[in-house]
Amino acid sequence: MVTNSHYLEKRTTAYLSKALLRHFLKGPEYDELVVVGIGTCRYSGDTLGPLVGSRLEKRFGSTSGISIYGTLDKPVHSLNLAKLVSRINKEHKRPYIIAVDSCLGRYYKVGTIQLVEGALQPGASLDKQLPEIGNIHLKGIVNNFDPDLNHKVLEHTSLTFVADMAVTIADVISKSAEQLLPRIAAQAGRQAADAKANNRLSSWM
């Protein structure tokens, strides 16, 4: 399922965050949130993921229950994505993974943010074969798709435009996280209480 909204529409943050929350609640119980911003500073059009990651890192810092990967200082890209996927699988227990990436599309969809259920396939518009990642993902359409000039298109995309889209996407994730993190914390509390009760029961037997 794909939910679309233009980054300039006033409803976008609330509309997409509600859709993200609905998807989270449909799934199994998750123990933490993981956000992965994909992209590099090599091309201005490819900085969307790192810009979002950096804003979220500043917003949440060391907040319990959420981990941020892919920032301007420590980008996640084609050369290290597979390693990160392996790391997440090893270090995070039942994570709900939100992936963020820029993409190219038809001219009349430029500026649209897409919330897509399921894993992201990074580098698809550039014909790169990279590992899938995410339970859900956000894509920002930053410029026109041109199969012969995609690298050039990304290179000449307005950085100011991409940065403005990043603000909106970061707001969507922040608003969602503010609702999801208390649920995750409450669930962790219940699990700890159940484990404690089971230990007591075992000691009596």
UniProtKB/TrEMBL annotation:
* Pfam families associated with the record: DUF1256
Which InterPro entries does the UniProt entry name for this protein? Pept_HybD-like_dom_sf, YyaC
Q: Which NCBIfam families match?
A: spore_YyaC
Q: What is this protein called?
A: Sporulation protein YyaC
